[in-house]
Predict the 3D structure of the following.
Amino acid sequence: MLRLFVSSVVRRVGSSISRLPLRATLLVIGLIAPVLLSADSAGSNQRMVTKLAENIYVILHKDAPDHFPQGNTTVIIGDTGVLVVDSCYLPSSAREDIAEIRRWTNKPVRYLLNTRWHNDHNQGNSAYADAFLGVTIIAQTETANLMALRVPPYLSDYPHRMERFQQQLDSGKDLSGKALTEEQKQDLKNAVAGGKAASEAVSAEFRGLKPKAPDVTFDHELDLELGNRKVQLKFLGRGNTVGDAIAYLPKEKIVIAGDLVDSPVTYLGGGFPIEEIATLKKLAELEFETLVPGHGGVLEGKAFVQQEIKLIESVVAAINQEIGRTSAQPERRFDEIKKAVEQNVDMKAWRQRFVGNDPNDRDFFENWAWPGLVEAAFAEMWPR
């Protein structure tokens, strides 16, 4: 099943909506809760722990009951304390992680880094604040600002999702006033019929949950000392969001990249693709051998990052060429430009490089990652 892929910026839908599976369709027609998140492509029904080095672990979480994906959590244990990178989506999952951390060490979690404002990376913050007195929550400045703006409305609005689904069905229109197709109506009916229990399970977790904002912010760099273990927090530039932060362990040659990198299909459904090229190049300049993505399995080496850079560069160059091909106003030629880019850059070849023959990942790339990249790059480039 294709995982829910939620973009922080959905600029344009186009004709592809009729081909999207249920959860993607519900997102596009405005039925997913108003804060839009990001995720990797492959569904997950189990929790997995990977040991990267002595006292360094990565936790991959299973999806929430409503199928919403949860960001990876990295645990870095030093002689004097622990740094956790990202607290995931469900407080119950964060508490499960905390119990695991306590089995690994009796040292306290001193720091918690949120790599981005998206809820699947920070809604477990309060669980850490409750469990570890004095824990310092850290985020890049713009991330902290957006968390304060976006997370509370998401939590308060979530319990009303099913009501909105039914309202759409009753009116026959999406939230923008556009008539629903028959396929979209059927998707809504399926969601209402099968999603109430799952939605209520998640609503129960969010009921009374008070978002925990960062205590400390940084603009570009912040170094942490955990006792014989140094971690560098960095903002390398805008990418998937305005405040993407990474954690870098130079001695261990490990980088924790957040959603600047997701595997197997990197999230390119929004953000700032032109600037992300430079950001990812700075990331690739770091000396690392192991990369922890925001979602998906751990990556070795820099090949995946280089492949992501080349994909974005190819799309940006093709869009720039199509915009300059004629003096006709580009904003009126988007569909034409999008089609030309797909042909000139060879979307199918890129899809094969990233996901091979897995049908769900192929759907994810073709219906979300690719069009999201094209749309975001076009929006960023025009009217420059």
User: Anything to note?
Assistant: The two ends are 39 Å apart (CA to CA).
